[in-house]
Amino acid sequence: LPGLHVLAIAFALEVSVGKTNTVMALNNSDVLLPCVFATCMGFQDLVFTWYFNSTELIYHGKIKNKATEPTLVARNPRVDFVGSTTKKDNNISIVLRNVEFSDAGKYTCHVKNPKEKNAQHNATIFLTVVQKMVETDNTVTLIIVGVVGGLIGLLILFMLIKRVVLFIIKKTQDGKKECLVSSSGNDNTENGLAGSKAEQKAPPKA
After folding, report:
1. Residue 181 or residue 89, greater confidence
2. Lowest mean pLDDT among 41-45, 51-55, 138-142, 147-151
3. What residue spans define the domains of the chain?
4. Where does the Ig-like domain start and stop, copy by copy (predicted)?
5. pLDDT tens across 139-195, in order?
6. Record: fold of 19-127
7. Quick one: CA dihedral 117, 118, 124, 127, positive or negative?
């Protein structure tokens, strides 16, 4: 099917903001907005942009190739690039300085790769700005730990070890990424930008 081939090309480029796509920041603090991209075909003259609420461009960068760090094209004065693309993970994260309540909203990390027939993909983070961080009530948890502390401790240790092992396995598999990749569900690309998944859903049958 010719349509399937186009889909394979489109998803060879993948952009991710990690497992959670919501970030909370204190008013007047600095906040990290994480983003990484992956491509099995490599990249040349790759372009990445960060948008606030889909329309306001807050950072625009270009990367010549894997051996070079990004060059700045344009940016909001309060935004700094903190990633690195000469390392393994193709990190294009930014930091937003002196966060204000008006900064709350949707931040989209968008990538376009000319080497993959201009394949495009993006991922979204939702930022919430608060006056102070509220601590959750852990009384019930403390009681449970007090009663069966040893068992819970072992269980938590096991879960941590399992997570580290799974992380190592995932990192090993990342190096063997195939070109036919499905987009992860937390990318939230239904935001009207190029590379959106919104166009791919079939209309419901009557």
Report:
1. 89
2. 138-142
3. 19-127
4. 2-126
5. 544 444 444 555 555 556 556 555 554 554 454 444 444 454 433 444 444 444 444
6. Immunoglobulin-like (2.60.40)
7. positive
Q: Which residues of 146-179 are buried (b: 16+ CB within 10 A; e: fewer)?
A: eeeeeeeeeeeeeeeeeeeeeeeeeeeeeeeeee
Kindly tell me the burial class for residue 107, based on how many C-beta atoms sit within 10 Å of its own C-beta (0-12, 13-18, 19 or more): buried
**Are 22 and 191 in contact, with CB atoms under 8 Å apart?**
no
Are the CB atoms for 71 and 62 separated by under 8 Å? Answer: yes
Length of the chain: 206
DSSP run (H or E) holding 169:
helix 149-174
d(CA 71, CA 103) in angstroms, rounded, equals: 25
| pLDDT tops 60 at residue 53 | yes
Which pTM value belongs to this model?
0.63
